[in-house]
Amino acid sequence: MTETDQATGGKQAYREVEADLEVLRRETVADGVVTLTLADQAGADLPEWSAGAHIDLLLTPSLVRQYSLCGSTSKRSEWMVAVLLDPDSRGGSQFIHEELSEGSTVRVRGPRNHFPMVGSPRYQFIAGGIGITPILPMIEAAEARGADWQLLYGGRARASMAFLDPLERFGDRVTVSPRDERQSRLDLDSVLAEPQDDTLVYCCGPEGLLGAVEGACRPWPDDSLRIERFSAKPLEEPPPDALDTFEVECQASGVTVTVPANRSIYEALEEEGVAVLGSCMEGVCGTCECDVIEGEPDHRDSVLSEAERARGDMIMVCVSRSRSERLVLDI
Ligand code: FES
């Protein structure tokens, strides 16, 4: 196991590892959804993590995918992920479903958390389909903190919705709403129509659901909504002051690069030999996050919240750019 300390600019910092883990168990938990329970081959404890964290599975040198940890944070010897076989798979979920079985080893990197659970007296969780995965440990954490919580869980059909059995014990805190049992869209009004001062909304699911929840939460107090995306959100119009070309100064490595219009910051840094970790290359996973020392980022990612964007002290260099002629990064 190789270890690095992860400094995550205000996010949860973990001991991060890159290691080959063994698939201890593989179970089918819903139509098209398998869970993989991963463990160190020698039985060592894995790094601590908290609700909302994810790991990278390095399936092949060019196939890296992120999955939320969905087991219990107290089980230090195991990590669990749940993987939906995506019919439009670009290779990741298909590889996992076809190639990984009990006894296989898989290269794993992490954990990281870009969806941390902030303290609150009350939580409204909203999950769509496989978006239930980061929410499960959040429910465990809310229970442990004695917080009040509710879950609205939508999906295609009950058979396709993972983890319904373990959720059953929570009774009417959980509303399960399969699409084939309702006439209309998921009833977000039932939980979001009245803005609440004492409630944080955590949502994970497909883009349509996230957009609808973002719309419904507009009248809510600032920063009430926390979302995690599986894929990049629709491209926004660049701001009027977006720059085609700008300079990035890497303070720790003493290198300054020019980023032209046809290159990302990540690519420009890589060409100059500045090491930055990257994974999804579409602003979703948070792996390439860098601390900003000076300058104004032009955020194009799907990771940072509005409040984090406004702070301007971190940037996802695979997609984001700069609104100032010079950006100074702590790398
Ligand atoms: S590499 Fe995933 S956000 Fe940049």
Helical segment tally? 7
Bound molecules: FE2/S2 (inorganic) cluster
Percent of sequence in beta strands: 25-35%
Structural class comes to alpha/beta
Q: Helical content, roughly?
A: 10-25%
**What summary fits the major beta sheet?**
7 strands, antiparallel
Radius of gyration over alpha carbons? 20 Å
Q: Which whole number gives the mean pLDDT?
A: 92
- In total, the number of strands is 19
End-to-end Cα distance, whole Å, is 24 Å
Q: Which outline best applies?
A: globular
Any low-confidence stretches, pLDDT <50, length ≥5? 4-12
SSE sequence, one letter per element: EEEEEEHEEHEHEHEHEEEHEEHEEE
Descriptive report:
The chain is of the alpha/beta class and about 325 residues long. Helices cover about 15% and strands about 35% of the residues. It contains 7 helices and 19 strands. The protein has helices at about 90-100, 130-145, 165-170, 190, 205-215, 265-270, 305-310, and strands at about 1-5, 15-30, 35-40, 55-60, 65-70, 80-85, 105-110, 120-130, 150-155, 175-180, 200-205, 225-230, 245-250, 255-260, 290-295, 295-300, 315, 320, 325-330. The strands form 4 sheets. Strands 1, 2, 3, 4, 5, 6 and 7 form a 7-stranded antiparallel beta sheet that branches. Strands 10-9-8-11-12 form a 5-stranded parallel beta sheet, sandwiched between helices. The longest helix is centred in the middle third of the chain and has 14 residues, at about 130-145. It starts with a strand and ends with a strand. Mean pLDDT is about 90; it is low at about 5-10.
